[in-house]
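Aim 2 progress update. The chain analyzed this quarter is reproduced below.
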Amino acid sequence: MNKLSSGLALLQAAPGGNPTGSMISTLVTFGLVFVIFYFLIIRPQNKKQKEAKRMIEAVKKGDKVITAGGVHAVVYSVKEKTVILKVDENCKMEFSKSAIASVETEPKAKGDEKIESKAEAEKASDKPAEDKK
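Predicted C-alpha cells:
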C-alpha cells in the first residue's frame, strides 16, 4: 500500500500537470464534438421535421399520397387532425395526418404536353416531313 500511495502522490505533484489547462482543452474538445453533432445530425433532422410538417399542412383534396403503412390513395377530404383517403371507388379510410409519409408528385406524361403542328415539328428538327416517314 505504501508504494501505491507514494505513486499517487508523485502523479499529483508531477511537474507540468496544469489541471486548469487540461480542463480547458477537455471543454474545447467536448464543444467541438457538440458542434460537429449539431451540424451533422441535429440540424438536418430538424430541417427534415419542418419540411414534413409543411408537407402535411399543405395536403389538400385531390392530392395523391402514400401513408406510412404503404397505402396509396387520393385525399377525399381534410379535417383538423385527420384526412379521409379514397383508396378505391367504394372504399374510403380515415387516417391521422401524421400517417402521411409522402405526397406523390407525378411527372408530366407525354400526352399532357401540347401537340405541335407538323410545320412546327419540321422547323424544330430542320428536316422535311418526307424524310421522317
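Residues 7-11, 111-119 have pLDDT under 50 and may be disordered. The longest strand covers residues 72-78. These observations will guide the mutagenesis experiments scheduled for the next reporting period.
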